[in-house]
Amino acid sequence: MIRLSIQARQALARLTLPVLIVASFGIMLLGKADTLLAERARIALADGLAPIYAVLAAPLGRIHAAITETADLWDMREENARLRAENEKLRRWQSVALALDAENQRLKASLQWIPDPDASFVTARVVADAGGVYAKAVLLSVGPNHGVHKGEIAVDERGLIGRITEVGSRTARVLLITDLNSRIPVIMETSRAHAILVGTNGNRPRLQYWPEGIKPQEGERIVTSAEANAFPANLPVGTVHYTSSGAPEVEPAAMLQKLEVVRIFDYGLNGVTAPEPQSRPTPGGH
Amino acid sequence: MAHIDQHPGIRPRASLGRRLDIAARVSFPACITVLLMLLTQAPLDISEQAALLPAVALCCVWFWSLFRPHAMPPPVVFLIGLLMDLRGYLPLGVGVFTLLAVHGVAVNLRRSLSRRGFAWIWIVFGAVAAGASLAIWLLVMLLTFRLLSPYPAIFMAILTVAIFPVVAVPFAVAHRSIANPERA
Description:
The structure holds 2 protein chains of 2 kinds. By secondary structure, chain A is an alpha+beta fold. Chain A is built from 3 helices and 12 strands; from the N terminus they run αααββββββββββββ. In chain B, 70% of the residues lie in helices and 0% in strands. Chain B has helices spanning 16-39, 52-67, 74-87, 94-114, 118-144, 151-176. The model of chain B has no long low-confidence stretch (mean pLDDT 87). The A-B interface holds A 16-17, 20-21, 23-32, 38, 41-42, 45, 49, 52-53, 56-57, 60-61, 64, 126-135, 137, 180, 200-202, 257-258 and B 38, 41-45, 47, 49-51, 53-54, 73-75, 77-78, 81-82, 86-94, 96-97, 100-101, 103-104, 107, 136, 139-140, 143-144, 146, 148-149, 152-153, 156.
């Protein structure tokens, strides 16, 4: 170690803080100039930490399950009655759906309809919240040698949750439809009018840019549009709900607050995703 | 080994075990900070869990910068800030700058605050946490070039102030026992 006088050492110690504050501005500029660098550092860190969180998930899940179970025991009778009524209603809907499906197949056959290609999918567990105070995203554990790529579509059992934005060797990050940076082309189901679903970081994304003369109806179903070649058509997204100030928002069909297992569909669409740089080895491809 | 320290001037030989002991005690604040920050990201299933990460980071940096600034030097604060930016998905540098600023304030107020009680430290931290939340909010808006709702910032400030005693009380115990290099 270099020997310094006490005065020099004190001066150096006093200088560290200002120098590091200047360096923090440097990092801000670097993060703006090379966004890929930050993205890669984040996903590398997430890759390293994912196994730890996956191990923690089991005991934490058991504790959570025990708490919810005791709460559920209290109102089991009402829950049972409610479920029976709902089951009755769904049975009627099921027969309607089956009849409509059969009719749809017949009509498609008589129209010589070109069928949509079947999408392949993988199922992955949500291991952590990959958002922050100003971002909404989740981290999936996909295991090594996965075939997940940027731009693929993540869906839970009820509806669309978002798109894959970053892929690591063991994890993938899904940007939720509620994130500030999320823009999704959608169609209102009854009017068939196009609109854009804009994330706000709140629980309900906002509807924007619908054509003149058409007004989104309260409770109307919103589905994805195939327009930008980024999404397949007709994935359920949510229902329209007006705020007290009169702005139409969409209540997501997916349970974005408590995501556990997510399906990732590869529809072979690459409408929006930028091509991967050549120098970067494709994850899982080695 | 504590009785040895009662003879100032004469120090025991710096054996390997003793040096390791001192190193562990000195690195305790940084290690516990990183560990707590990583714990806030575990799948706890709490809504608004994301706000816990900056809250815990701010509490830890404030406490250890006040009570043991030698164990929480600016380079360590810098790294903690970087971890906060990377794990909290903030634009790079935002957490680094904010935590360094909090550290600077804590080091400057050390003399006057150490003579007062816990209540004073908490009240001043309230102002610091509000300032830090505001700084993060403004910097994120500046760097993403977009207007953001102020509610997450307000929530973060309130959460930070609210969890401070929960973090600070065990830290105060550790400060006097396991994190004290003089007891090595």
